[in-house]
Specification:
Pyruvate Kinase, Chain: A, domain 1; 7 strands
Length: 184
């Protein structure tokens, strides 16, 4: 497994190389990609265009940073979709309701799950979360997928995941970790 010394966007191109190899090794035909502003999603969509792989780019929900605002521009979304990928913006499985509860009560179960996954790295937590989100939206099947995420911006983590909907969280399986940073 490739292990990057540190997380971050400098690993993106090498992580996409690992992603392509993982598609061949595991013979999966669906990929979910975390992409806040669209840079990583666009890079993956370009690389996998016309390769028979379903690509779903998962963004932050509207209002993540500013009320009513999306972080990905309409132009970037349109470009990703013109390459045959889908862009999904929806409720973040480990954040939204839990954040509201935490602000009132101090802690919630979603925090425990998210923080436990972060023990393996921020990217692993996000890989699990975007697989749940894409499953909830019906954009991927229950068949294995490769999930791409990162620490901050870019990509540095790739995981082979058997996805599940968020209401079936414990049916989701992280089958393999193809790449991740040693330090995050």
């Amino acid at each position: 497994m490739p292990i990057f010394d540190f997380g971050g966007r400098k690993n993106t191109q090498q992580a996409i190389d690992v992603l392509e190899q993982g598609l061949k090794t595991y013979k999966v035909n669906q990929v979910v990609v975390a992409s806040t502003y669209g840079d990583t999603g666009l890079a993956v969509a370009r690389r996998l265009q016309d390769k028979g792989v379903k690509v779903v780019v998962v963004t932050h929900n509207a209002g993540f940073r500013e009320p009513g605002q999306l972080e990905m521009s309409d132009e970037t979304r349109d470009e990703i979709e013109s390459l045959g990928a889908k862009v999904y913006t929806g409720t973040m499985a480990f954040r939204n309701i839990g954040t509201a509860i935490r602000e009132k009560q101090g802690y919630c179960q979603q925090d425990l799950i998210a923080n436990t996954l972060r023990l393996f790295g921020q990217g692993i937590k996000v890989c699990v979360e975007i697989a749940l989100m894409a499953s909830d939206a019906g954009l991927i099947t229950p068949d294995d997928c490769l999930a791409v995420a990162g620490t901050g911006r870019g990509a540095d983590t790739i995981a082979l995941i058997k996805p599940a909907s968020s209401n079936s969280l414990f049916d989701l399986k992280v089958r393999d970790i193809l790449a991740k940073p040693l330090n995050w």
